[in-house]
Amino acid sequence: MIDPAIVVRVTSPRLLACALVTLLTLTACTSPSDDPVIGPATAGGTVDGGTAATGQGTGDQISPPAAVTLTPDEYRAELEQARGPVRDAVKKLAATRGLKTLGKQLQKTSGAVDAAVTRLSALAPPAEVKAQHDSYVEALGRLRTSFDTARQDAEDQRVCTGPAVLTGMAQANQLSDVEDVAKALSGYPASVIPVKAAKKRNRRLSNGRFIASEGRPSRAFLELRNGTRQDAVVVLVRGKKKAITVYVRRKSNFKIQGVRDGSYKIYYTFGEDWDARARSFSRSCAFEQFGKTVRFRTVNTGTQIRWTNWTVTLHAVTGGTVKPKKIKPGDFPA
C-alpha cells in the first residue's frame, strides 16, 4: 500500500441422537410349577405379576390436533396481527439513514417477517383462500431471506441507508413479489410494504460544494486531492467542533481557502449517491481518517506574516508519508 502524501509548504507573504429402540420380548420368570408369562414385543413397559403394561403399543405416536378452519373474520384478525409488526419494521427501515443502526434495523425487520411466517403457517384459513394463503406464506419466507441478504450487504458496506436497501429490493422485484401475492388475498389485509421505494439514483454535489463551513478569515489554505474513483466528503474537526465539511468529486481537487489557525483531524467518506438528508452516501460507502493531525499557524513578526498551507491526498501516492486509518461508520462526524 503506497501511503497518501502530505505536502507542507511554508509560504511567505502570499502565502452457524438417535435412540436406537430395540424391540425386546419381555419374559417374566416364575417358579418351575408356573407357566411362563410371555409379554408382547414392546419398546417399553414393565411386567408385574404376569401383566405387561405398555403405552400406545409399538411405535404409536399421538398426532397434534388439526387446526380448526378459521372464519373469514377470524382469519382477517390473524392477518392483521401477523403483518402489523412487519409494516412497522419496514417503516422504521425506510427512516434509517445511517449505517451505524442499519444492521440492527434489518435484523429486527427480518425477525418480524419470520414471526409472521411462523404464525401464519400454523393457521387453517377459509377454504376458498387456502391456495392464496399458502402462496402468501411462501412469499413472506422469500422476503425474510431478502432482508437477511440485505443485512449482509450492509455489513459489507455495499448498501449504507434504509432507503437504499428498499430501492435495491424493489429493483430486484423482491417487494412486488410479496405485494402481488398479498393482492390475491382479495378482501383481506395482507400488504406488508407500507412505503414506496425510490428508484435507484446517483445524486452528486458539485466539486468544492461546502456542506457546512465556519468563517474562513485566514490566509492559509488546505488543498484536497481526490484521485480515487469515488466522490468524497471531507470533514475538518478542530477540537470537538466540525469546522468545515466539503464535497470533492472523484478525480478532482479542491482548495479550501482561509482555514483558521488550529489543529485539525481530517475525516473523509467515499461512496456513491450522496443522500443529503442522511448526510451519507447510500451505496459502496467507506470511512477513513487521515493519519496525522494537521496544524495551521499564522505568525506575524512585525515585518512579515508567515503561515502554513497543507496539501492532503485522499488516494495512495508514491512517496506518501501518512497512512489513512479506516474507522467505524459511527465514528465518522457526519
At a glance:
The chain is an alpha+beta fold.
Radius of gyration: 34 Å
How helix-rich are the residues, as a percent range? Answer: 25-40%
Poorly predicted runs are 5-57
CATH class placement of the largest domain: Mainly Beta
* Average predicted local confidence, pLDDT: 85
Shape: rod-shaped
| Main sheet record | 7 strands, antiparallel
Number of helices: 5
CATH superfamily of the largest domain: Immunoglobulins
Q: What letter string, H or E per element, gives the SSE order?
A: EEEEEHHHHHEEEEEEEEEEE
CATH architecture classification of the largest domain: Sandwich
Description:
The protein is rod-shaped and about 95 Å long. It has 2 domains: 72-184; 210-331, Immunoglobulin-like. Mean pLDDT is 85; it is low at 5-57. It is α+β, with helices and mostly antiparallel strands and 334 residues long. The strands form 4 sheets. Strands 6, 8, 9, 11, 12, 13 and 16 form a 7-stranded antiparallel sheet that branches. Strands 1, 7, 10, 14 and 15 form a 5-stranded mixed sheet that branches. Strands 2-3 form a two-stranded antiparallel sheet. The chain has 5 helices and 16 strands.
Keywords:
28% helix; Immunoglobulin-like; five-stranded mixed sheet; alpha+beta; rod-shaped; 334 residues
Give the SSE map.
Blueprint: E1 6-11, E2 24-28, E3 37-42, E4 46-48, E5 51-53, H1 72-94, H2 99-121, H3 130-155, H4 162-171, H5 174-184, E6 210-213, E7 221-226, E8 231-238, E9 241-248, E10 252-257, E11 262-275, E12 280-289, E13 294-296, E14 298-300, E15 305-313, E16 325-326
Parallel strand pairs: 7-15
Antiparallel strand pairs: 1-15, 2-3, 4-5, 6-9, 7-10, 8-9, 8-11, 11-12, 11-13, 12-16, 14-15
Helix pairs in contact: 1-2, 2-3, 3-5
